[in-house]
Design brief:
single chain, mainly beta, four-stranded antiparallel β-sheet, 7 strands
Length: 100
């Protein structure tokens, strides 16, 4: 008999839309890490202030795997921010708090 193996390249195993996993620590003071699972189509990950202004592009491109994105907050004022992941299929958001 032949073995049937399914690799990560199999589209049935890839997420149809981006998924934001954990953001740690949250709230944070100088740096936070964002865990993402990305679909095969291109995505754009950006940080916005609470008024909806784009602050920083964190990642843009294609990926078919989980990844960790570092968020450097040393130049950010204390406040509430929104991490936004845009793809062809959807938009995912998560709140992030920068403490003083």
């Amino acid at each position: 008999g032949s073995e049937n193996s399914v690799g990560i390249e199999d589209p049935r195993l890839l997420p149809a839309r981006p998924m934001i996993g954990s953001i740690y620590p949250n709230p944070f003071s100088t740096e936070a890490t964002l865990q993402l699972t990305l679909p095969p189509q291109g995505v754009r990950v950006a940080l916005y202030d609470f008024l909806g202004r784009a602050i920083r592009l964190l990642y843009e491109g294609h990926s078919t795997e989980s990844m960790i994105v570092a968020i450097d907050g040393t130049s950010l004022p204390a406040g509430v921010y929104v991490v936004r992941v845009d793809s062809e299929a959807s938009v995912e958001t998560r709140l992030l708090v920068r403490r003083p």
